[in-house]
Automatic annotation (TrEMBL):
It comes from Raphanus sativus. Its EC number is 6.1.1.1. Catalyzes the attachment of tyrosine to tRNA(Tyr) in a two-step reaction: tyrosine is first activated by ATP to form Tyr-AMP and then transferred to the acceptor end of tRNA(Tyr). Belongs to the class-I aminoacyl-tRNA synthetase family. The gene is LOC108819788. This is tyrosine--tRNA ligase.
């Protein structure tokens, strides 16, 4: 076989009318690469209209290269480039990490990738003209603002069940114990050909499901140029029953760096080759798919008494001779061994004489020996890049800690925010040792703002900043899109985010030490730090564990979920480390993903875990509503509700007489009014006059005894809520920007 010495045919075709004869030649050349083509007519049309179609091929660098990866790809790329194609070879290093190859160690994976490149380039693949080698991590980092929104959109549009059906692309089945990374992997691989603007996907038959997914995505999004799928034959392993050559079983494969004796041993002693049987005969398959395409002939050398030497030019004659017994299995194996050794010898010579190649092969052998000790995810120290993403000044142990009066005061303020704190000792230690702890809070902009999001957040943030914390409020616009809020329309979601900011500023949030951060902007700006975190979290957590976090999105494990709802918890977990947070200050409904972050710290041996400070979830106003809901306006008080709306909603609120437990009105007093005003004033001249309460215990005691009536409780709560909300109402009446935002938000009634 000739080396890749052709000048790119694309340049000669550029700007020229392609003749019918030339189209047919190109079509036949390209079509011969695939065992199956979807769709033939599209391929012919493409080659008639485009001088230099882009062909996407790729590999996951994870071990030694066998001949199915090496020789077949070399032949395929030669055919494609001779037909004028530009071939982009995707070195899927991040995908190997997600698939837990080499323990997910990116440095080792890159070594394997360089070794694979060296083999291809030794065959003459020209990386300067019509063949490009592209590292997935480098390309995605360089254009993350294009890549990740595409991945997320694919995830949003496909159910989890559909994505699981693509598991064979990684050598798994949908019934295997899968990690969250396996779901992300499929969505990313679906995005790759679109990201690379590929006209043709040239991968193995085992990758067809995800290539079809890409075509379906093009149909759904009305994207014009669907990639043509050209799926090549999967060369089987040498042993009986092996449908695919496998790097994890050395005896099943011929490797590109196998020496002559090893090739002879594997073919002659290991290869499944029943006499006179063509079907399922591994040696005959290798002749058909490697030897004949490479040399255009297959020569069998043997004694005259056994028929003498014979050269075959087509597979049909070989199969006929073999079935009849005129070609013996031993002679077939000997001829195959000789032909393979002839092909592989130049590669062996290259790795013996070229210093870079020799060094790479030594590194590869070292890496693979280390990998034999373990083939699973282990708790390892993070890489340098990961360490930077996780770096927070870790306070020392709190054992025997003596808190100063100031630190004690800070602790009491911060602790008062949370219904639950994990862990109190860690919080004391943090506030004693770190002058300005970072607190992570956030929200998913998806509709009007109710008072649980408005008043409680203003109160909590002001407490945190008064205790010296720096508060980072994460405007989770991409998360709202993943959760299909407002129909996944990012422009609408951003309008709602601006409306939320406007309310908090009008509602008295102290801007000192508070920063509002848009998730989409921050992640796009520092994607090289963020996405490796997401992928590492995803590969270390099985799908069942991530599904249990569905509550954070208002979902249950039993719902029909999209792939996006698996990506969401992994991203939210990563947010905490990306923002270098010491404290996670979110609602009790977010507790599971915050615990996931602490478990991740245990897994990677990170000492300074984020402290979880989970605030109370204010219930809806109606009976049985555990959580205030924007989708049911009667169940919630909204920040721009007028006095009449507040009066009506509280007057109709569930408020059983002399009953404290499950009474929303009392909960609103406890978690909204008292923290805001430090008192609750009840006015009733008939029943003993006005009374000012400063503790909830006194209020609940009076209510249970009947001294505080339901009517008086409701009236006092209505008055207090209206006092809180009046500055916001005034702002949205007098400020033009605020008025405009509110009008837009009122039109966005769909939250899913």
């Amino acid at each position: 076989m000739e080396a890749f010495s052709e000048t790119a045919l694309a340049s000669s075709l550029a700007g020229l009318q392609i003749s019918d004869e030339e189209v047919e030649r190109r079509y036949n050349e390209v079509k011969s690469v695939g065992e199956q083509c979807i769709n033939d007519d599209e391929l012919r049309d493409l080659l008639a209209k485009k001088a230099a179609p882009v062909c996407y091929d790729g590999f996951e660098p994870s071990g030694r290269m066998h001949i199915a990866q090496g020789l077949m790809k070399i032949m395929s790329v030669k055919k494609l480039t001779s037909a004028g194609c530009r071939v982009k070879i995707w070195i899927a290093d991040w995908f190997a990490v997600m698939n837990n190859k080499l323990g997910g160690d990116l440095k080792k994976i890159r070594i394997i990738g360089e070794y694979h490149k060296e083999i291809f380039q030794a065959a003459g693949m020209n990386s300067e003209k019509n063949v490009e080698f592209l590292w997935s991590s480098d390309e995605i980092n360089a254009r993350g603002d294009e890549y990740w929104p595409l991945v997320m959109d694919i995830a949003c549009r496909n159910s989890l069940a559909k994505i699981k059906r693509c598991m064979p692309i990684m050598g798994h089945s949908e019934t295997d114990e899968l990690s969250a990374a396996h779901i992300l992997y499929v969505c990313m691989q679906c995005a790759d050909p679109l990201f690379l603007q590929a006209d043709i996907c040239q991968l193995g038959m085992d990758q067809q499901t995800v290539n079809l997914l890409a075509r379906e995505y093009c149909d759904e999004t009305k994207r014009g140029n669907k990639p043509v799928i050209l799926s090549h034959h999967m060369l089987p392993g040498l042993l009986q029953g092996q449908t695919k050559m496998c790097t994890s079983d050395p005896s099943s494969a011929i490797f590109m760096d196998d020496d002559e004796a090893e090739v002879n041993r594997k073919i002659r002693k290991k290869a499944f080759c029943l006499p006179k049987i063509v079907e399922g005969n591994k040696c005959l398959e290798y002749v058909k798919y490697i030897i004949l395409p490479w040399f255009s002939e297959f020569t069998v050398e043997r004694d005259e008494k056994f028929g003498g030497n014979k050269t075959f030019n087509n597979f049909e004659d070989i199969a006929a001779d073999y079935e009849s017994g005129r070609l013996h299995a031993k002679d077939l194996k000997d001829a195959l061994s000789k032909a393979l050794n002839k092909i592989l010898q130049p590669f062996r010579d290259h790795f013996k004489t070229n210093n870079r190649a020799k060094n790479l092969l030594e590194q590869v052998n070292t890496v693979l020996k280390q990998d034999q000790k373990t083939n699973r995810v282990v708790a390892t120290a993070p890489s340098k890049e990961m360490e930077e993403a996780l770096s927070v000044n870790a306070p020392s142990s709190s054992a025997g800690l003596q808190m100063s009066e100031e630190a004690e005061k800070k602790y009491n303020i911060v602790r008062s925010i949370g219904e639950e704190c994990i862990q109190e000792d860690e919080l004391k230690n943090l506030l004693s040792k770190k002058p300005t702890p970072i607190c992570y809070d956030g929200f998913e902009p998806s509709g009007r703002m109710h008072i649980a999001q408005g008043v409680m957040k203003v109160t909590n943030v002001n407490k945190l900043t008064s205790a010296g914390c720096q508060v980072k409020i994460w405007i989770a616009d991409w998360f709202a899109q993943l959760n299909n809020k407002l129909g996944g329309d990012l422009e609408k979601i951003k309008v709602v985010g601006e409306y939320f900011k406007e309310i908090w500023q009008a509602g008295g949030m102290n801007p000192e030490k508070v920063s509002f951060l848009w998730a989409s902007e921050e992640i796009s700006r520092k994607g090289d730090k963020y996405w490796p975190l997401v992928m590492d979290i995803a590969r270390r957590n099985n799908l069942r564990r991530i599904l249990r976090c569905g509550q954070i999105m208002g979902r249950s494990e039993t719902e029909v979920l999209s792939a996006a709802q698996i990506l969401y918890p992994c991203m939210q977990c990563a947010d905490i480390f990306f923002l270098e947070a010491d404290i996670c200050q979110l609602g009790m409904d977010q507790r599971k993903v915050n615990m996931l972050a602490r478990e991740y710290c245990d897994d990677i041996k990170r000492k300074n875990k984020p402290i979880i400070l989970s605030h109370h979830m204010l219930p809806g106003l109606l009976e049985g509503q555990e959580k205030m809901s924007k989708s049911n306006p009667s169940s919630a008080i909204f920040m721009e509700d007028d006095e009449d709306a507040v009066n009506e909603k509280i007057s109709n609120a569930h408020c059983p007489e002399r009953t404290v437990a499950g009474n929303p009105c009392l909960e609103y007093v406890k978690f909204l009014v008292l923290p805001r005003f430090n008192e609750f004033v009840v006015q009733n001249e008939k029943n003993g006059g006005n009374k000012t309460f400063t503790s909830f215990d006194d209020i609940s005691a009076d209510y249970e005894s009947g001294e505080l009536s339901r009517e008086d409780l409701r009236k006092a709560l209505i008055k207090a809520l209206n006092i809180m909300l009046q500055p916001v109402r005034d702002h949205f009446k007098t400020n033009e920007r605020a008025k405009n935002l509110l009008e837009q938000v009122k039109l966005f009634r769909v939250t899913r």
